[in-house]
Amino acid sequence: MLQRPTSFATEVLRYGLIVLVLAFIVFPILWMVVTSFKPPQDVMVSPPRFLFTPTLDNYVHAIWEKNFLFYIKNTLFISVTSTVLVVVAGALAAYSFARYNVGDGHILFFILSTKMFPAIAVILPYFLIFRDTGKTAVGRFLGVGLDQPGALIISYTMFNLPFAIWLLVSFFQDIPRELEHSARLDGLSRMKVLRKVVFPLAAPGIAVTGVFTLIFCWNEFLFAYILTRKTASTITVGVESFFTLQGILWGPVAAAATISVLPMMAFVLLMQRYMVRGLTFGAVRG
Fold first, then answer.
1. Domain ranges (residues) in the chain
2. Whole-number mean pLDDT of the chain?
3. What is the pTM of this model?
4. φ, ψ for residue 244 (rounded to 5)?
5. I need a labelling partner for 59 at 20 to 30 A (CA). Which of 39, 117, 168, 216 fits?
6. Measured between alpha carbons, how far is 37 from 54 in angstroms, rounded to an integer?
7. Half-sphere exposure of 284 (CA within 13 A, CB side)
8. Does 1.10.3720.10 match the CATH number of domain 37-279?
9. SS3 248
């Protein structure tokens, strides 16, 4: 039976809805970027001014006067380190759950249950732990006290590890066991099978896990706000510093937010094809 061609009106309605959804999603970002180039007298006016003389004063204020690159450096180091730890530990743990059924599913469910805790419920214990740890010689050496990068790295790793394990288990389960058996018969050790066979096949899932983990670490505010003061503050805390007693510096805030968003947008666009492969991995089976 031949499929009836889609009418022109249906196509117009479909693409119209797509345009409306995209406009709803993209408009706040465009407004933020436009505001970052507005002079102070054109920011908080009604009706909004779309014709104005662009200026870079907001970026100069954010970068030089507020030293926003310092927050970017801290965020980059903490986020990348935590993401690497989460991906490595999560991949090894997920593989053991997928292949050996460690704990007969009970441990895996317990790991998932830790993700159900809201961040506000664990922030006080984390604060007390890192406060006391930072007073010890080992804690100061490892940098795991308050207002030190290690505190955020450990917090982000512990908070994202359950999500990474549960996400990666399904990817490892979709890899045929016969491939591993064949590699073992060819003389490869268990670690070489993981490195040369399993992990390359699960690369799309690992990439997706890394992207989501990095985005969470980059955008997280509560842990960064409570566990840091100045030395290890991240971009979310840095943006909050533009809320002064004299009022909110909307232009510099928009400039700082634009600087904060650009690295993640570039990273997601770079990893887009891996994310599509990872999200569709195992969706179609022969």
1. 37-279
2. 84
3. 0.83
4. -100, 175
5. 216
6. 5
7. 2
8. yes
9. strand
